[in-house]
Amino acid sequence: MSKLLDDAVNELSKLPSIGRRTALRLSLHMLRMDVQQVNMITESIGKFRNNIRYCSCCNNLSDNELCPICEDLSRDRSIVCVVEHIGDVMSIEKTNQYKGLYHVLGGVISPMHGTGPSDLKVDLLLSNAQKNEIQEVILALSTTIEGETTQFYITRRLEEFPDIKISTIARGIGFGDELEFSDELTIAHAIHNRTKIAKYE
Fold first, then answer.
1. How far is CA 140 from CA 52, 63, 132, 197, in A?
2. Considering 35, 51, 67, which residue would you say is the last residue of a domain?
3. What is the pLDDT of residues 57-82, one digit of tens each?
4. pLDDT tens for residues 113-137?
5. Both 108 and 160 in a single domain?
6. DSSP code of 110?
């Protein structure tokens, strides 16, 4: 194999979910592309990595000091949805069901991976709670041990703001899932977060 091709495959295979076979296929595809198109791809990736910023208010990705969501005056500023990663914001936004603000922690508390509370943007959340008109904080964290630990930690830190309601997203059986294949914790959450069915007249 050409060393140049081998180098390209090695670099692409460093990306998540990209094995060497996929990296080779992508490299060969780029070889068939116009040189200018490939240059535009590499240039845009370089600009993104070098110039991207984090919103000073919510820690979301931004081109400026504030991200577009925080700049949007039509958003409900009394509600803040706390998520682990930027991808979670994108997932929630795709639903078009949430119109409040966000707060991106940047991960969860995980001693095994060397991530402690000080590594997360919890202090920024508390600072916003102190100076803004936040009435509710929605914790939309993963249902892992680390997610539960982080949720407990944030809940304890928010106790200094008794007027702020703290809630979590509903957890339980997903649409289309079969009960027998669900784990005990998921079923327990589903029972706990059950909803009343309206009676038909």
1. 25, 25, 20, 25
2. 51
3. 999 999 989 999 999 999 999 999 99
4. 899 999 999 999 999 999 878 999 9
5. yes
6. B
